[in-house]
Give the backbone structure.
Amino acid sequence: MITWMQRHKKYLIITIWISTIAFVGAGFVGWGQYSYGDKAGAIAKVGSVEITQGDLQKSYSRMYAKYNQMFQGNFDEEKAKQFGLQKQALEQLVQQALLLNLAASYDLELSDKELVASLTAQEYFFKDGVFDKESYKLVLSQNKMSTKEYETDLRKDLLIQKMLKLLPIAVSDNEENILNTLMNISDKINYKVLSPDDITIDTSDATLKPFWETSKNNFMTAVSYDVKYLTQEKVTQTYDATKISDYYNNNKTHFKDSEDKLLSLEGAKDSVIEELNAKATKDKALRTYIAYKKGKLASDVVFKSATLSQVDNAFDVATLQKISKLSLTSPYMKPVEVNGVYHTFELIKVNPSMPKSYEDAKSDVITIYTTQTRKTKLQELANNSIATFNGTNTPFITSRDIDKIVGLTQTEATEFLQKLFISDKKRSYIVLNSKKIILYYILEQKLLDKSNNDLASSVEKLKSGMFNKALIKTLENKYQTEIFIQGL
């Protein structure tokens, strides 16, 4: 399922951006070290529409919730990284922004009446079968959203839906008849499954060493960095009433409740002290950094040492990237916060990448050699067997009869039948994404008499998918997209 979703993630995105705020009631998910904190500030701009850090956080949460539902609660941050969920979340927002630009170009708007009608029809906020304002506020509060945020997002989604309704997809009788014909072509086949697991590979040193000798440069150590560093623990101080009041008055917008309303001084007091302590901690770390550069640190300061690389990193990716940009002529790095603690680094030595010894590289050599050799030998077996193989016979099957293909998973059977029914060869083989190869021979073919099938909705979905993809491509060429953060 993971492979299928990775392959089709672009189509998933196109489906997701026309839905309402689906993560309400499903929990609010962050992305750990990638959290951007403050919801203000543009991280991208599409045409005249800005995308904020808060937008990206909510988009990620919404998509995480959808994937988690697909995986029946077994989705986690590791899978999110495999899918590139952060990038998908930003792509979703870019697509939404493209459509909002198009709506604006037509002076299309959503009235308050339309917004209220949609909002009060959402069952998330029902109590005793009707919309309840207190339930509305409670659900949003539980999901760390204000009513203003939610209604702004909902207005965008409804405006996009309103615009798309102005671009209807019509289905003609001919289109439905063509698809009906394609869906009812049936084949009786003989097939045989060839699996990579059927291929035995010799992984003795006598076989592996010559392979390693010819490809040593494919098995390199990671570049590593020897560093010294200082840590600055959190500073906790006592502040008088004047200091707390002055800081609160100068930074009121930092202190809001769940409904985005400003907190009073008394209500914000603990948060004010927390920010003052954070500021004092950062200031102290910066003073230590300056003294470090000037060689004026106290003699009792304790240094720590570490060797960091992509495969052995005690900190985080962002910190390692900053360290990699240091040089021996400019070895000091300003304090960075990692897990709530400020660290000041000095680069001592860069250890370049080098070919691994055979013993160190052996596990990787086995993996690559086995994968490549199995693929080659399986291909040879398929080519040698195609003309003479004798496998399993099927009854007449259509592209939908995945349950009649024995020896494959549902995903594999679906892929096989999709490829089989667009092939123009009577005897051949099909390579699946799972690396299995299916030999087949079409014994007989006929058209089933099922002309009453209702395929209009399938044609509409197919045409809508093609139209949406083309629309987004056209808008990408029309409106400039600027991304202001690295790595996405």
Q: What stands out?
A: The longest helix spans residues 265-293.
